[in-house]
Amino acid sequence: MADATQFLPNATIHLHKHDLPPGLSLGPVVAVDTETMGLDPRRDRLCLVQLSGGDGQAHLVQLIPPELGGRGYDCPNLKAMMADTAVTKLMHFARFDVGMLQHRLGITVAPVKCTKIAAKLVRTFTDRHGLKDLCRELIGVELSKQQQTSDWGAVELTREQMAYAASDVLYLHALWAKLEALLIREHRLDLAEACFAFLPARGRLDVLGWDEPDIFAH
Ligand code: MN
Q1: What is the pLDDT of residues 122-176, one digit of tens each?
Q2: How confident is the model at residue 9 (pLDDT cuts 50, 70, 90)?
Q3: Distance in Å, CA 29 to ligand 1 centroid
Q4: How far apart are CA 157 and CA 99, in angstroms?
Q5: In which order are the strands placed within the sheet that holds 112-114?
Q6: Cis bond leading into 111, ω under 30°?
Q7: What distance lies between CA 168 and its chain's CA centroid?
Q8: Cα of 165 from ligand 1 centre, angstroms
Q9: How many angstroms separate the alpha carbon of residue 40 from the centre of ligand 1?
């Protein structure tokens, strides 16, 4: 089997169990993604939070339940960074990650930017807005999605899982730079910002049961 790390030749991956180290700053814009046991924030455990300052380094914070020897969601450094209003959290499909992080960590995640919303606002000629599609078409990076559906609840993650998880945050800064230029070109940056500002409330609505049917649906 191919080594998943071959897709990340220049990346450095740091695995932190239980929390970010104290005093670590990743700058004013931090790319964030999560890996979970499934897609329902109320049912499924948050297992991993990936972060990058956009410098080719990924920080993976693994949250392990107390019964498996961890500290559960007791992660004050991670919570502080996610809730810090001076740090913009850059995500792809932020609606899910914001809902999950807010529900599991008991915080408000803001401010947030979402590359999927940005793509939907400017790439109206296609319905392909997945991270893999955008990375290929906008920055020429080929992502592997092989580990997407693997068991993120495992106490010991594989190298392939860590490389996959890291790849979901390593390119978001480059992607955002392209998308922001397109939003400006198409005069939709203000609309994107209004959508981003709503994301913390959108995450709360989803967890409270207004995801289906959507509160904006007829
Ligand atoms: Mn991911």
Answers
A1: 999 999 999 999 999 999 999 987 777 899 999 999 999 999 999 999 999 999 9
A2: low
A3: 18
A4: 24
A5: 12-17, 57-62, 46-52, 29-36, 88-91, 112-114
A6: yes
A7: 7
A8: 6
A9: 15
Q: Which CATH architecture has domain 2-207?
A: 2-Layer Sandwich (3.30)
CA of 36 to the centre of ligand 1 (A): 9
Give per-residue pLDDT as tens, 18-28: 999 999 999 99
Please check the confidence at residue 2 and state whether its pLDDT lies above 60.
no
CA of 218 to the centre of ligand 1 (A): 31
- What is the Å distance from ligand 1's center to 125 Cα? 25
Report CA torsion sign: 68, 70, 73, 78.
negative
Taking the mean position of all CA atoms in its chain, how far away is CA 124?
23
Residues with CB under 5 A from ligand 1 (ion): 33, 168
Torsion, Cα 40 72 53 109, to 10 degrees, reads 50
Would you kindly state where each structural domain of the chain is located, as residue ranges?
Answer: 2-207
As a whole number, the mean pLDDT across the chain is 94
